[in-house]
Amino acid sequence: MPKQKGAQKKQLKSYKLKHINRTIQEGDAVLMRSSEPGKPSYVARVEAIETTDARGSNARVRVRWYYRPEESMGGRRQFHGAKEVFLSDHYDLQSADTIEGKCKVHSFGGYTKLGSVGNDDFFCRFEYNSATGAFNPDRVAVFCKCEMPYNPDDLMVQCEDCSEWFHPSCIGTTIEAAKKLEHFYCEECSPEPQDLDNSISTSKNTDAKVNTKRNLEVSKTRNKHAKRTG
């Protein structure tokens, strides 16, 4: 008897997810059901959509995973934002039925300019090698006396003289007091003791990040990354 041909894969430009009434296409960021109860949805980027069904149903998606900091070898660090994810080199083929919704992964600069952050907003500033734990870029600009990279969730105050940025806790004040400051000069620019109840405070922006000359290496540890299944 002649051999039966296997089902032919058909590439789709878009696909309607009936269970959430949304349409996905290549390049979309999506939330995918976690294999572990109680864990947040996985974040992924749709690389391709395919089906072996002549009617175009039962689609599968080839995805490239975003990792949350706690899923990486180095774990979550102080400068990681609550909505930060890393674009990994980890690809999978998953059923489209595991997609729970669409989301938006912003660039780092784009995220810092959002007027408000929604539940489906994330940002990415690193690519991540899931096998070695290496990041690209492997160094990032640092700020403040603590020499930490910028966390967009944290308020920082800027010295009016040298334009350096500082965390309120690192200059001996609170976030609440920093929000009320009208003027601020750091210790190096103002040898006189200051009343930090009267300085200027502003949200940290990315322009200063570009101008800084100090950098921190984004190191890796030996912890194994989480294994994902659909």
UniProtKB/TrEMBL annotation:
Q: Which Pfam families match?
A: BAH, PHD
Q: Which intervals of the chain are annotated as region Disordered? A: 191-230
Give the matching SUPFAM superfamilies. FYVE/PHD zinc finger
PROSITE patterns in the record: BAH, ZF_PHD_1, ZF_PHD_2
- What is this protein's gene name? LOC108819365
In its UniProt entry, the species of origin is given as Raphanus sativus (Radish)
Residue ranges, compositional bias (Basic residues):
221-230
Record field: transmembrane: none
Name used for this protein in its record: Chromatin remodeling protein SHL isoform X2
